[in-house]
Write a structure and sequence with these properties.
This protein has about 240 residues and is an alpha+beta fold. The protein is built from 3 helices and 12 strands, in the order H-E-E-E-E-E-E-E-E-E-E-H-H-E-E. The strands form 4 sheets. The chain has a 5-stranded mixed sheet with strand order 3-2-5-6-8. Strand 5 and strand 6 form a beta hairpin.
């Protein structure tokens, strides 16, 4: 699918959506008060359209931003159904962060979580985070085909005998065959939330969103309970890893 120019899809729209920014410290997850939050179109990140400050909970005020018409997200083969914004955050004693590609849909509230790294004597360096296009709209290669039934060998892989919801999963940032790609520890709840926001639209009916989230949870837990499972003692008995999701 060919993407329209970002500037075209963000200006002159008939809808509006809300955006709120939640800022916390990467050290201890404490809220960061009085952080400076700037919002701009991703197509023109130097032109600030909103500037806010976080309160004692680390939350900015919610602002209304231009978004494409609601109907764009309800049918396939429509123009881009969301606007893309760049959120820049600065706070005393922390590394500044730029997050581009923040999606705002008409009639919905988007919450962008941002974790700031303490300076801790290090030289100040801008952290750039780019959110890729939603999988329903972006141009991505097809999923690698998998066998429906996989043998469980004796190479250390286990099938769990009880249901345990993990605290963390390990996400392999690349192709399953790419041994150079990094593995990241991600909280299970955050993983499910982030996959859902990348694969479905917040404008869909509540029952549709719930059905998709349950499917994502089922797929992920299948990886944890079968041959993709391993126990990582460094995070405690209730932490499990699923590699190459």
């Amino acid at each position: 699918m060919q993407r329209q120019g970002i500037r075209h899809t963000q200006t002159g729209q008939s809808g509006q959506g809300g955006l709120q920014v939640w800022v916390e410290s990467a050290a201890g997850a404490a809220p960061v008060e009085n952080a400076r939050v700037r919002i701009a179109y991703s197509g023109d990140p130097e032109s600030t359209i909103e500037e806010l400050r976080t309160n004692d909970s680390g939350h900015s005020q919610e602002v209304e931003l231009a978004a494409p018409p609601l109907e764009y997200s309800m049918e396939p083969d429509q123009p881009q159904p969301y606007s893309e914004y760049t959120v820049s955050v600065e706070a005393e004693g922390y590394q500044p962060v730029d997050v581009s590609g923040v999606e705002v849909f008409s009639g919905t509230q988007a919450i962008q979580n941002i974790r700031l790294r303490p300076l801790a004597g290090a030289e100040e360096e801008l952290q750039n985070i780019v959110i890729p296009a939603n999988t329903l709209y972006g141009d991505y290669p097809p999923k690698i085909a998998e066998a429906e039934i996989k043998p469980v060998t004796e190479s250390g892989e286990i099938v769990l005998s009880r249901v345990v919801v993990p605290e963390y999963v390990v996400v392999h940032d690349g192709s399953p065959r790419d041994s150079t790609a990094r593995d990241y520890y991600v909280r299970y709840k955050d993983y499910i939330k982030n996959v859902a926001s990348s694969e479905i639209y917040a404008t869909w009916p509540d029952s549709t969103i719930r059905a998709n989230v349950l499917a994502i949870m089922s797929f992920t837990l299948n990886r944890v309970y079968t041959e993709w499972y391993r126990n990582d003692r460094s995070f405690g008995a209730e932490t499990f890893s699923c590699i190459r999701i």
